[in-house]
Amino acid sequence: MSTTLDLMPSPFVDGLDQWSSENGTSGSATYNGAANAAFVPSDQDFGGCLELLKTESTQKLRWTGQTPILPGTYLRVTAKVKAMSGTFPSVRVAGYAMDGSNNHVAGLDETAPSVALDTYGEVVTVTGIVAAGNRDGVDMIWGAAPEYGHFGIDLIGPSGGIVRVDDIEIEDVTGTFLRDILDVVDVRDYGAVGNGSTDDRAAFAAADAAADGRTVIVPDGNYHIGSSLTIQNKVRFDGTVNMPASAHLALLRNFDLETYIDAFGDEVTGFKKGFQALMNYSDHDGFDLAGRTINVWGPIDMQDALNTSDTFLIRRVIRNGQFYAQDDPAWDPDVTTSQGSYNPNNPLMLTGLTNASQIQPGSQITGNGVGREVYVKSVNVGAASCEISQPLYGPNSTQTYTFTRYKYILDFMGFENLRRLTFSEVEFQMNGYCNGVMLSKEGENIQFKDCFFIKPEHKGITSAGRACQDLHLEQCQWISNEQSLEADQRVSVGFNVNANDTKIRDCRFQRMGLSAIINGTGHMVTGNHFFQGDDFSNAPRVAGLIFTREACVATVTGNYIDNCSIEWTNEHDSKPDFSNEYGFGGLTITGNIFYCSNAISSFRFLRVKPYGNDHFLSGLQVNENTFYCATGTIERVEEWDTTHAGPDYWRFRNITFERNNFNGITQRTISPVCLEFNQTSNATTWTLDPSDYLPFGGNARTVSAVVTEGEIKNSSNARVDSMPYVNVNAGSQNKYVQLVWPQACRGTVHTTIRVDKPL
User: Fold this and answer.
1) Is residue 587 part of a domain?
2) Does residue 461 surpass a pLDDT of 60?
3) Is the pLDDT of residue 432 over 90?
4) CA distances for 506 relative to 449, 477, 501, 556, angstroms
5) Is the pLDDT of residue 482 over 90?
6) Is-contact 358 368, C-beta < 8 A?
7) pTM of this structure
8) What pLDDT does residue 3 have?
9) 306 with 312: CB under 8 angstroms?
């Protein structure tokens, strides 16, 4: 309400002709000259006052002045009364509502609660609040129809008593009413200064304590809060706050990104302080980004955001928002080179580094004999050494390495151990400027659910240590920034894994350089779409899913493997030659769709590539898959890559290629394979060639069945009833099977041949 409104009624000393004994309207009777009313100039409690004898059942006292009633205005009418003699009446504030045509507005509550007088000479104060709005605490709710009112008091009850009345007051209490009645508490009322430097923490705490369910408001200004603070009630920020990095602000009733952005005036700072509060308070398991986009101009150091600890082991969730990378030099990777030494007997260390102080944890290591996705886990500058995420398969004992520290939107590398952190419905828009998420050094059960990794510069999710233990990726999508490039020219990596037990389910990878590179064991890859084709004809295709452990103990089930391959290596082995260990085994590939189009004919869907000698397959099941080449043809579906070494066919064990479908594949791969052989001329030794069917160019090592079709006849055209014996691994390349009969004969047989000895 405007402060220029004249609300205060005339004092009694100015004459009783301005005070009505009726409703206060024009022409109503006044107390001027009335027998039951007199002005008392010097009452000991009131000074000048009105003395009134109650002669009517409801003795009215109304100011004849018009008090305006405005929307949003709250008026308080106050009267002080005392009984002097006679019977005791009750007293109440009362009014008379009038519209703009000077007519009474009927049907409204025009009285406040009454108070009984019971002691002579005792001053009793009565009040009443009048307003248009229907709010708690309003005594007379008048709505929009009245434009003014006549206010005063009523004396009710028995007549005959004499009372004295002090000058009646009418005040605008809108500000106080809104604060106390409309659920708002202002931090300034409790001493907050908001000059950016004075510590206002105590004022914030006091306002929160006084709120008791109401909303704490923070008006314009910048409020310094010197230490951690928890606000229990709802809060609204029109101004901002600043806090030390180590201090957290827990907003228990407004725990969402929007409120933290309002509080700190910046999207990134708001997210960091919200994350800090999430990790420091137990009342919330998740931080809601509220569907907001956070514009990011450089990497966010998540351990620095928490500030107070480098370990956190309790489940927490970050959900429902987007990080949007902006073009900025802060995303440029840091690159350094260093000479260092490597000892295969100490496989996770580089020593004798010439400039260890310049090497950053989380850097990718490249150089001669270094496999893909090998990272620096930690650096010991004093010892001139660094711990690495994976062994190196073949470097020189001393050589130069390149260390590239890529920049990530969310970087958790500062955490020594972080567990059970979940991202749900979060989009990482990298726009080709940066990378997605760098995991912590150690940890387990990190989860990404329904997340999007859009256009990474190089990496989607990177593990430089073992925080990828039991990593869950569910219903996520990776969309490359390299989609226009030929498949073999791309460099981006969806994610890497150094540890065990990952669950990769129902994700989609679109035209990455490679989708996943996975070490460790116990992995389940189910229901994903690995899509890595291009728009070129007769084009090379590359690996989409790479396992880098011989005994990977993994299942690949129900996936759509589209214009890419599964590659199986041991490039993360410091002693890559076979030596008294498990062979390549423990891999089950079942029920997948393998699809390609416009691929070069030498492309293969499954490629085994050992980085050392004497390796073999011992446990590989490739069953019930569909292999489909939509445009053109490819020669076959599998291959042993001999870049580094060929296979030891004599140790193949427990291999099945069964019940698969082949379309657009020149040569099917089957083992055990049942083949029909027709010997048209009489011979004692029949030589069968199953080699084209056997996986990976393997030997014909086992014949499990020989069944004749029709009669076997000799040169006299007589039936031969005897059976042949079998020679396996026949021929100079050990690829043939020989059936040796007791006599020369001819006919047709069906043979079942395996590339392995199953037991």
Assistant:
1) yes
2) yes
3) yes
4) 10, 9, 16, 12
5) yes
6) no
7) 0.81
8) 44
9) yes
